[in-house]
Amino acid sequence: MQLFKGEALDLHGALHWFMDGRMADDKxxxxxxxxxxxxxxxxxxxxxLLAGCTLLGGTTITDSKVAQIERNYTSDxxxxxxxxxxxxxxxxxxxxxRWTYYSDTADNQSSWFRSSAQHKTLIxxxxxxxxxxxxxxxx
Length: 139
What we know:
Blueprint: H1 11-20, H2 30-55, H3 63-67, H4 76-83, E1 88-93, E2 96-105, E3 118-127, E4 130-138
């Protein structure tokens, strides 16, 4: 494998070059090389975890909105107006669907170490475009 003109690398060297971000023949100690090779996966995992926390809180679920839902009466169009697109939309056959909404809210008094976030979940079962049942939980 040739990276630059006149430089040849074997597969082992190419792997080190990829993991370290440097050429394989650098003079770092094995422990330093290990630390640098582990930094990328750790940073990637942290980024994904933080992104996941922010992605779940896309819909605002309020008690007053949930109180407006009536079994065998509220339509899917009304749900879309109240809550927007669901986080998860599953088809269960014969014109039956399960919509799931998540909401994470925190007050202004929360901090890094002590969060007073409130997690809400609304699961709605629809048949023929009408709410048949729903479950609302908050903690």
